Amino acid sequence: MNVASKMQKSMMEYCTIKKCPNSNEKLIIKYIVKGMRPLTTVEDPDFVELIRGLKPDFEIMSRRTLSRRIASLYENMVSNTKHNLLKIPYLCLTIDVWTCKGKTRSFMGVTTHWITHELERHSAALACRHFKGSHTHDKIIGLWTSAIKQYGIESQKITKLVTDNGANFVKAFTSQGITAEYYSETEFDFQEVSTILSTTSSDDDNEGPCHVPPHQRCASHTLNLICTKDAIDGHSKFLKSALAKVMGIWNKISRSTQAAENVQDVCKKQLIRPCATRLNSLYDSVSDLLKQGELNRICAVADVPAFLSLEIEALEEYYLCTMPISVALDRLQGEHGCFCGELIPTILVVEKKLTALKLQSFKHSGKLLDALLNGLKERFYFYINFSAQHHDAIYASISHPYFKLRWIPEERREDLRELFVNFVSSQSEVLSSGLQQISRGSSMEKNSQDDIFFEFHSNLVEKVSGNQIRIECLQYLDDTECELSALQKFPTIKKVFIKYNTPLPSSAPVERLFNFSGIILSPKRKSLADELVEELTVMKANNFW
Questions:
Q1: Which of 141, 172, 191, 535 could be cross-linked to 74 through a Cys-Cys bond (beta carbons 3.0 to 4.6 Å apart)?
Q2: What letter does residue 229 receive in the DSSP assignment?
Q3: What is the 3-state secondary structure (H, E, C) of 19-42?
Q4: How far apart are CA 141 and CA 379, in angstroms?
Q5: What are the residues facing 230 on neighbouring strands?
Q6: Burial of 317 (C-beta count, 10 Å sphere; 0-12/13-18/19+)
Q7: What per-residue confidence (pLDDT) applies to 320?
Q8: Which residue, among 540, 541, 542, 532, has the nearest Cα to 72 in the 3D structure?
Q9: pLDDT tens-digit map of 310-335
Q10: Do 299 and 249 touch, CB atoms closer than 8 A?
């Protein structure tokens, strides 16, 4: 056999293996990817000995071959995901940017979420793409656009794009003419839209201006800003000193092994410590510390200044005052059981509970409650006042069987009931299935010749259909069932629910994606190629097996 034939045969074998790894190879790949283990595991002598002890005649692939097989399976996963997403009418995207440990590389994560006909929440990770250069708004648009193009997603199908409150994310939308929900004019440097659209980026991933879906700020991140940023103005003298002392405890046990062991002996556990990248971590850490009791004993063994009685009172009041916001934050961070319809009711409940707390005789937290309430009303102004630009969130809440009209203040209940009924009645495209059912039950037969002669016939059918839909809305609102399964009785409302509850209140899912990236891109594996980091992260997140 000549050299050319050998090369051709070798290439054919390579292509065949790349496309179709056998079952044993898939098990090894699954073991590596799901366990987020180093690719060099396949060349580890102990691992090789294990595999050959189980199957002596099995030839283990090399690291380079493993990388090629992973790339092949990743392509198959992208193809399958693309095919499945074509069938989904409404999608929600969450995006965020993460910088790895050591600040050597940044990545943009993109996840998508939808609701099935069976009213189940499904999610998929789309990308964890290397973000080159500065995190500017135009590059953000270019990267997430390239991600949805890879999966063949039409931007018109995206009901909401959820991000945190970062200035670059907000500017990515305001530069395209989309109104921001809340911003401080001194916080951002806005440019003219014409200037933005005429700007080109040297980044290959930035493919220019596109249709940008409606933007929604992460509600959990916004609530966290209220507790951490807005609340500072309401900190009393004793609360400031108390927080400084608890911070001293956390710093001491993170720097001193002896102090950490002494505190663990007292508490019988390790204390929770705040993390800058984890929402609600300050509240969780303070709560954990207060539950231990004997704060001054902890201070003694950690060798930090003891608390005054007034400082302990201030810390306990801080815990009680921030509890409503922190509980709401955790609820809105959910993924599989959380819907957009929970957003406004949750905000209104938080406002109500904070207002009720003001009636209690707190010694140190009067200004803190004022600061929290003002921050809530300012950052969620359009939601609390039922602004027209957030009617979609109102439709999401009312179409959720658990909420319906129960969350609406008495003075606005009838107005919003009528708003919802009129809206549903006017949506002919969304309610096509309901119209078809009504048409089949009508005594008037559709006849094309009659329609031509009697021009009023189609208008009459539309009027009858609209009345029937209105009746369905009223029956739904009077129904006492609170489970999602109740929507099966109301096909029109079900369609409204699926469309307007597809968005998530929070961008937490994409932040969870970075948890995998952080493990995969550990310091010992910092030389992994960008493409391989994305493949390993997305396959792990999607549990592709």
A1: 535
A2: T
A3: HCCCHHHHHHHHHHHHCCCCHHHH
A4: 24
A5: none
A6: buried
A7: 93
A8: 532
A9: 999 999 999 999 999 999 999 998 87
A10: yes
